User: Fold these one by one.
Assistant:
Number 1:
Amino acid sequence: MSAMKQVDYKILHHEALSENVFMLRVYAPEVCRFRRPGQFVLVSVDNDYGERIPLTIADADEKEGSITLIFQRVGLTTTLLSELAVGDSLASVLGPLGQPTKIEKLGKVVCVGGGIGVAPMQPIAKAFKEAGNEVICILGARNRELIILEDKIRSFADQVIVCTDDGSAGRKALVTEPLKELCEAEDKPNLVVAIGPTIMMKFCSETVRPTGVPIIVSLNTIMVDGTGMCGGCRVTVGGETKFVCVDGPEFDGLQVDWDGMMSRMKAYSGQERKMLENHQCNLEKAAAELEARK
């Protein structure tokens, strides 16, 4: 029996979308083949540093055999990812994982993406459009520079509403403002999908609660191990304990214990900060080695 061929998860494209947001296109043909909207992968940067982080699949190209990953540089692993170049390879890409989004023809669907949450929202919104729905996308960020994938989303959405905190693009408003208007209209949506910072998803859920519009949220921000083994992604949904990586990442936003989730998300902040402080950028390391040889 022949040994299974090891896939070289080569970086095919690297792009900085903003100062701390990056897009990688990675060769992963089997993941590309079987992925569905809403699912994620576990990524290891190298074999020496063993942390695996969950990243939602933002897009895929079956002809190329690639998946697109968009991430924000916040901790050590995402910093290491941001320093990779075209031609470099990841140690592993495991997936697709998680329960896929239930895509069906409902009528009108509003998809809300906040900051980096626009990346996992995009394939879900596109799938709802392809299923025959009217799709309205609300994109939110602190400023114009942090709005991502706007052109791509405009290529398929029926309407796109951009909101920025400082008014540098679109409306000077939080995403909950147009969401409230849409959900209180006579022709209100049949479903809201919200993905972004935890506090944004919480307030989106509270915004739609009085209107009777159902809302689905993706709790990918709390995932740690991604396999259900560590228990770090425990959340309370409808009074029951759920594991985001295996039971989700999507849940009924009206049933999530948001305060409990936000408290748990602080659990590893100290360790992550310490690891990041001890990291030296690869370019800085190379420069130091050159200087030492002089």
Number 2:
Amino acid sequence: MTELLSAPPRVITVGAALLEEALAAQAIETIPVSWRPPLPGTEDALAAVLADPRRAAANATAVRRLTSAAPQLVGVRRASELLPGRTFLHAGPPITWERASGPLRGALIGAMLLEGLAADEAEAERRIGTVTLEPCHHHRMVGPMAGVVSPSMWMLEVRDAEHGGSAYCSLNEGLGKVLRYGAYGPEVLERLRWMEEVLGPVLAAALARTGPIDLRGIIAQALQMGDELHNRNRAATSLLLRELAPAIVEAAPEQAAAVLRFINSNDHFFLNAGMAASKACADAARGIPGSTMVVAMARNGTDFGIQVSGLGDRWFTGPAGVPDGLYLGAYGPADANPDIGDSTITETCGLGGFAMAAAPAIVRFVGGEVADAVNATRSMYEITLAEHPAYQIPGLDFRGAPVGIDVTLVARTGILPVVNTGIAGRVAGTGQVGAGLVKPPVEAFTAALTALAEAL
């Protein structure tokens, strides 16, 4: 007892760093404890869900299925083969035309013109009610930004060789004024028609020659080459092009130069394949009773929604926020639409904002400094269930990317997922106006937590 009393004092500090700093200035040893109160109003639901005896095993199963999935690019198919007639898809949770944002409206108008269902913008708006609008996620698909898919478009087909599921994503148009950002001018439609008539058929023929392409391996390698697989895909696109180029030349020698030139000029070409790969991985973890792991995050330009493994296909939503980032040319925050797109499926699987530490150059695109990218990744370990065994980050001593967002960890820490994203102009037809970082609305996670508690 005497020895304890004579020992130098040590103080346990919790929460604000001010006390710890003051004690350190007095040469008093501190033992800092990282702790935050849970999100306000979640205490009862959190206690109930944490007490669920199924939770630990269910989450272990969900994480294992997600991280063991083996996505392979196996083909390219027309959307008309996969969808009911006169069905258009969009990104994010369900939404009606009346609530649709400018870029989503612009993309839907462009799709109506592309399909010959309207002669001009005014007719497209009048006739939009003649088609069925449904979320991409409801058809095992994902779409970047507005995410609009119409019957004539070609879809990348990804198959999970481990669990047997399939997922699809449209072909990437490139940057600038493109349909996914809500642009629908003549140059946009001309490019889409070329993709329909040339790019899609050539890729289908090439993949018939190559056989399945290992996307998990490409993603793992690209992370070690400076990509984070959401807003930086330069390495992954180059790796995919190496796989495809010989088969493209063999399958379509007369069109090969144009196709290769298009892919080579578009650093984001791999993004859509990576999204479909992530969708296939996340879908492998769906439907596990008791699991609190997020299996989808998506935005439609108005709402941000999530889905949770243990809650089936239910959406939990909140208002989509406007990204904070860098703007192109004379554009500024007043020109920005709220967050939009299914590309947050990459963050759901430990990529994108969760892997920014692997891509220090990303800060030149979305803003901030290299330290911010590293800190963003480090913070995501606090709300995830595991580290991905294949997706490793060199700058963190090859630590696995944080994966498996847990609703209970979000509620316990108050930390929200980090997303890096392009920014669409709020006025239909504008196109891309910038890129930056955004956080989901806390309401989506608290609503999911409440639903998990009510389901017990």
